[in-house]
Amino acid sequence: MTQSIASTAARFVVRSCLKPALRPMIPVAMQRIWASLATRTLAVPFGVRFAKMRLADVPTERAQSRNAADASVSAILFLHGGAFLIGSPVSHRSITGRLAKLTGASVFAPDYRLAPEHPFPAALDDAFACYRALLSSGYAPERILVAGDSAGGGLALSLCLRLREEGLPQPAGLALISPWTDLTLNKLAPVASDALLSAAWLTQGAAAYLDGQSATDPRISPIFANLAGLPPTKIQSASEEILRDDSRRLAVALDAAGVWVSHREHSLMWHDFQLYAGLVPEATQAVSEIAAFASARLSPIVAAASETRGASIPRPAYPVGAAA
Fold first, then answer.
1. Mean pLDDT of 191-210
2. N or C: which end of the chain has fewer CB atoms below 10 A?
3. Cα 305 from chain centroid?
4. Which candidate, 147, 137, 154, places its Cα nearest to that of 171?
5. Residues 197, 202: Cα–Cα separation, whole Å
6. Is the four-CA dihedral 1, 98, 289, 233 of positive or negative sign?
């Protein structure tokens, strides 16, 4: 398989312009500014409106397709990545806007509290409050999908574990982009060509978020949790990222727990390449696949069969080679 010219160019930009800022020696405030400027060059789809609002007391951005009804009956709660240090709803508009346009759902991206100012459990508390707010505002759980990338992907998984603990209904599905599920960092993939991530930066993010808590706490590193009872889950990862094995291990663990899971590892791509949807064909296709999964899970037919959720999507032959 070969990369597109756009993919090669985007990888070069990420490696040369963004990765140098994501280092422990760079103050977190500067990392946030640099990342914010870099992500403003991403492609936000036409025909989507973004509005500031609050879910519970959490600042949130809502993305809606201009062709969708204002009172959409479906919602996607999207939790952005950034190693719990950086990122915002604005930095991820290339994904949230495209999901809103392709699914017709309202996409809610919380501006959850970040470390080191707000370590665990601040981000999880914010995500939990936002999900409860969606339920309180009238969204049925079978019409809510939870998604996230990187740290936000791990946070999305932790949210579903929290819902199970609190006895609240699970969403219709989970869509995870290269989720960071193991903050011990003991099993990083031996990848020398990760265009975005470094072990040093992840170590900085983990230390800031943990703030003395154990990295093996399943609320923080959900790979160590009992995953039974979670909703159908779609995982995307990349072959050229040091978090690659987090996705592989998670897919195996979900399958062993009896959870429907689909895992696709994109060859020759880097961590969070989906942010380049609209500019890089491989990224556009990847986000379109997430949107198709979301649309299928949020459809009225699936919602009506919520008591047997997952049965409407055939259990796939598991791609052992991609997730072992």
1. 96
2. N
3. 26
4. 147
5. 7
6. positive
150 is catalytic: yes
Note if 241 is an active site residue. yes
Q: What angle do CA 120, 124, 127 make, to 5 degrees?
A: 150
CB atoms closer than 10 angstroms to residue 130: 23
CB 185 within 8 A of CB 203: yes
Q: Residue 308's pLDDT is what?
A: 44
Q: What are phi and psi of 59, to 5 degrees?
A: -60, 135
Q: Each residue of 85-140: pLDDT tens digit? A: 999 999 999 999 999 999 999 999 999 999 999 999 999 999 999 999 999 999 99
CB 108 within 8 A of CB 62: yes
- Nearest one of 6, 173, 152, 9 to 105, comparing CA atoms: 173
User: Is a pLDDT exceeding 60 seen at residue 320?
Assistant: no
Q: Name the catalytic one among 61, 142, 240, 241.
A: 241
What would the CATH number be for the domain defined by 9-305+319-323? 3.40.50.1820
Given a cut of 50, whether residue 319 has pLDDT beyond it is no
Q: What's the CA gap between 158 and 131, in Å, rounded?
A: 12
How far apart are the C-alpha atoms of 313 and 324, rounded to whole Å? 23
Per-residue pLDDT tens digits for 206-227: 999 999 999 999 999 999 999 9
Residue 311's pLDDT is what?
A: 37
The single residue of 74, 88, 91, 150 carrying the catalytic annotation is 150
User: Would you kindly state where each structural domain of the chain is located, as residue ranges?
Assistant: 9-305+319-323
Spatial CA neighbour of 230 closest among 202, 259, 250: 259
